[in-house]
Amino acid sequence: MPRVSENGRVLGSIGVSKREINQISFRPDGKSFLTLANNRIREWDVRTRKRLWDIGSYNGMQRFFVSPNGKNIALEVEDWSSKYEFVDSGPHNLEIWDGYVGTRLACYKSFDFDDIVFSPDGDLMAIATLLDWQVWDLHSSIHRILVQPIQADARGLNLRKLGFSQNGKILIVLGWLQTEGHIEDLLLEWDISTGIEIKRIDLIGARRASDWSQIAFSPATRTFAFPCQNGSIAFLNAFDGTTLYTPEFTSKALACAFSPDGSMLVTTWRDSPARIFNTNSGQEICRLKKGGSHVKCAFSPLKEDPIIITGSDNGVVRIWDIKSILPV
Q1: 3-state class of 138 per DSSP?
Q2: Measured torsion, CA atoms of residues 195, 196, 199, 205, in degrees rounded to the nearest 10
Q3: What is the pLDDT along the chain (328 residues), one digit of tens a residue?
Q4: Which of 87, 96, 109, 173 could form an SS bridge with 188, CB 3.0 to 4.6 Å?
Q5: Cα angle value 75/237/30 (rounded, 5°)
Q6: What pTM value is reported for the model?
Q7: Taking a C-beta distance cutoff of 8 angstroms, is the pair 287, 276 a contact?
Q8: 104-136 b/e with 16+ CB inside 10 Å = b?
Q9: Alpha carbon distance 39, 7 (integer Å)
Q10: Around Cβ 32, how many Cβ atoms within 10 Å?
């Protein structure tokens, strides 16, 4: 067992909120990042740690997705105006915002979905809804559906996590098929131009994700990573369906994020250090121990600048330089 390095160098910290950080995501240029906490999305400069932008605050903000070209931000927002008495939650709306100006471009009411992913060039947006998956053309019009929606629910197929191939021509989907009370996990691929299914792999015997919303995908290696119920991390190869597992831990990971080349994965754990794994071997290579409980994480998109950002349960974001603790 190789020695596990500890305590990466903290470049700085930011008190974002008094409440838990709900989400962190880098901008495509790696110079700034976005945080979601207490129903407010803000942008921060990595170097100066100053606040650059504030999308505002309103109830029901659930999560956001940033396009790789930075032009668009997709938001999932709970529609409190549609809530009824004695009902805990209302329908969710899909909002599209201008990623540079910070203005809302469109709002699609009662649009419940499981996942959104942008193509590598940012021109396409794939959505897994409760009933189907769709591909939208953002380059010409955010209202235009490029591929005829593929009905999933009618076949008992539930699509939960999406990923684009590096060339943007194939949509990789992780989901499950339910038949007569039996649930079977599946890995599927569709041709974007035709909407035709081109691959289906039955993941027989594979461990299930503990939280489908925290599955990460690396286009570089076409690999899914997700926390398992037994405390391990699974690396699922989308080419052939083979799965590599890390050792088991006493608790389940809360969030995962890949490095740009897909060779490393950072994970966060409540009341435990953030951990970084080698995705080829499943070995833990270092831990980020300072700062208490890390619950969210993001990897810088810049390959030459290995920086990780973690968000804590007390609203503090820490910026880590991990170059010195990575194996040579």
Answers
A1: coil
A2: 70
A3: 344 455 668 889 999 988 889 999 999 999 999 999 988 999 999 999 999 988 777 778 889 999 999 999 999 988 766 544 434 456 788 999 988 888 888 888 877 788 999 999 999 999 887 667 788 888 765 566 766 556 555 556 777 789 999 999 999 988 887 777 677 888 989 898 887 889 999 887 677 776 777 899 999 999 999 988 888 999 999 999 999 999 888 888 899 999 999 999 999 987 788 899 999 999 998 888 766 678 899 999 998 888 999 999 889 999 998 887 666 5
A4: 173
A5: 45
A6: 0.88
A7: yes
A8: eeeeeeebebbbbbbbeebbbbbbbbebbbbbb
A9: 31
A10: 19
Q: Which domain holds residue 216?
A: 5-325
CATH of the domain at 304: 2.130.10.10
Alpha carbon 105 to chain centroid distance? 23
On whether the CB atoms of residues 318 and 10 are closer than 8 A, the answer is: yes
Cα separation, 63 vs 80, in Å, equals 15
What distance in Å separates the CA atoms of residue 106 and residue 19, rounded to the nearest whole number? 29
Bridge partners (DSSP) listed for residue 243: 236
Would you state the structure tokens that stand for residue 1, as one six-digit string? 């067992």
Supply angle C-alpha 56, 103, 317, rounded to 5. Answer: 40
Return phi, psi of residue 151, to 5°. -70, 125
List, in order, residues 6 or more apart from 49 with CB less than 8 Å away: 12, 13, 14, 319
H or E segment and range at residue 96: strand 92-98
Contact yes or no for 315/291 (Cβ under 8 A): no
How many domains are there within the chain? 1
